[in-house]
Amino acid sequence: MTGxxxxxxSPTGATPWPRPLRRTSAGGYAFHRVRVxxxxxxxxxxxxxxxxxxxxxxxxxxxxxxxxxxxxxxDTGPLxxxxxxxxxxxxxxxxxxxGVANGAIRYTDxxxxxxWENYIKAxxxxxxxxxxxxxxxxxxxxxxxxxxxxx
Length: 151
Description:
By secondary structure, the protein is α/β, with parallel strands linked by helices. The chain has helices at residues 19-22, 43-57, 110-126, 130-137; strands at residues 6-9, 32-37, 61-66, 81-85, 89-95, 101-107, 128-129.
């Protein structure tokens, strides 16, 4: 699943988000996303970065890190896509072999959730804002094209 790894966390913070996004920050938590990007960009990742840039314009906190940033953590395989909610719950997003989302596994073990949240926070801290990344690496590219519905 090259190019489909995303990490989300919800450290404390408030933001002036539009109505659909404001619900995420209820209770003092704001959703932060870290997008691991592999080069060359696949058409899917290029499209997703367009979407994430727009989300960032509306206040979502999204940063990009290069795949090399997580390589040391991938000694047994690609990192899973995870979402941390409220510092208490971790979801590991599951995909089919075709790359279609197929549910998630919920974890509530405090140590596990805390380790992932700290890892995500560390990646977020060194990541680049998606808007500046997009403007430098994606904006000048031709629109992505797909052949037969594949990346």
